[in-house]
Specification:
The protein is mainly α and about 350 residues long. It folds into 3 domains: about 1-25, no CATH class; about 85-120 and about 135-245, no CATH class; about 260-359, no CATH class. Helix content is about 60%, strand content about 5%. It has 13 helices and 2 strands, in the order ααααααααααββααα. The longest helix has about 55 residues, at about 70-120. About 15% of the residues are buried.
Length: about 350
């Protein structure tokens, strides 16, 4: 596709350039200039790299605008083809991995059942519980793939869904039409559907998955799920709400990421409050931090201490600050008389108090 696009573009340009600007005719070979041949550098030539194209004089018969020979465009198209082939290979490898994970899970279940049956014959009750077996299996998969247990558990669940209920998605992954992230998105948005509805969703979603990047496809899949799911949104929300969780993911350089899986209403309310406070602080004179940094600082302070500057009882709003907000909390380690922690004071302490005078 990339090669065809290049040729179409240059074909239009070449026609105009050949007619109006008198570029080289493909059938004419320019005579070499003797003076230029004498002026060639005599030093040791650098060794070409493996990626450097080997350009011969006969490659330069047709010169495109910008001095790019047609043969180099063809070579560039070949390199694009290698990138495309490698992406398809990733999908094929992912499909093989999916099948292997599900095969291991089923074999694990057979071993567990056989162990229980053998121990039941002897009257022994000393066997590993199902939960412990599952944790051990998840850990082994994680070690084999060098991923955390949580990621391994998600991939085990995806493998079961793809091999059991979504065969067309697995086939598309196997031939490289979609990536593993596309397949995982289909699994996510078919969760909770009955087998027939999953097949309907798969049939409607796969053509789009083959054409769109994951971010756009996820939005499409979410809307498609709402149309196909027979269960009321309220009921599905109640079920999803029971799975809310909080997690901290350590990162490099002494940093960490915090994630919350909560109700969308609460999530948007939290975002609005943090954004409003950070935007207000960003307008204060002398504030040097970016809005993004301020949002992180505000969220950190609220989560650590319950609030950043508690409002009076008569002045409460969704942003957490009002026209009569005061800073009177004391008695906390590292806080001054105004209730602002010392490490926060250096960022916006006194400016924060003075800035609220005119709110």
């Amino acid at each position: 596709m990339g090669l065809f696009t290049f040729h179409c573009f240059w074909g239009v340009c070449v026609g105009g350039v050949f007619e109006n600007r008198g570029m080289l005719d493909p059938n004419e070979h320019p005579e070499p200039d003797p003076d230029e041949a004498d002026n060639e550098p005599t030093g040791q030539p650098s060794e070409p790299s493996a990626e450097e194209p080997d350009v011969q004089p006969e490659d330069l018969l047709i010169v495109r605008p910008g001095g790019i020979p047609v043969t180099l465009l063809e070579q560039l198209g070949d390199r694009f083809g290698v990138v495309e082939d490698s992406e398809r290979a990733k999908g094929t490898a992912a499909a093989v991995q999916v099948v292997a994970i599900e095969d291991a899970r089923r074999f694990q279940e057979q071993i567990q059942k056989a162990s229980k049956a053998e121990l039941a014959k002897t009257g022994s009750v000393r066997f590993m519980s199902d939960e412990l077996c599952w944790r051990s299996f998840t850990t082994e998969i994680g070690l084999a793939m060098n991923v955390p247990d949580r990621t391994a558990q998600l991939m085990i669940d995806d493998a079961y869904e793809l091999t059991t209920f979504l065969p067309a998605t697995l086939d598309a992954l196997r031939v490289g039409k979609i990536s593993y992230r596309h397949a995982a998105a289909i699994v996510t948005h078919t969760a909770g559907l009955d087998p027939a509805s999953k097949l309907l969703f798969e049939e409607a979603a796969l053509p789009t998955a083959c054409e769109q990047p994951v971010s756009k496809f996820t939005a499409f899949a979410r809307k498609l799920r709402e149309r196909l799911n027979p269960i009321a949104l309220e009921e599905r929300h109640r079920t999803a709400f029971t799975k809310r969780e909080f997690a901290v993911d350590p990162k490099q350089d002494g940093m960490a990421e915090i994630s919350l899986y909560i109700s969308a209403v609460d999530g948007i309310a939290i975002q609005d409050r943090i954004y409003a406070i950070a935007d207000m602080l960003h307008r204060l004179p002398g504030e040097e931090r970016t809005v993004t940094q301020l949002r992180a600082d505000v969220a950190t302070q609220i989560l650590q201490d319950g609030d950043i500057y508690p409002p009076t009882v008569s002045s409460v709003n969704r942003t957490g600050f009002g026209r009569r907000s005061v800073f009177t909390r004391t008695g906390f380690p590292g806080r001054g008389s105004d209730g602002i922690p010392s490490h926060i004071r250096s960022g916006f302490g006194s400016r924060l108090r003075s800035g609220f005078a005119g709110c």
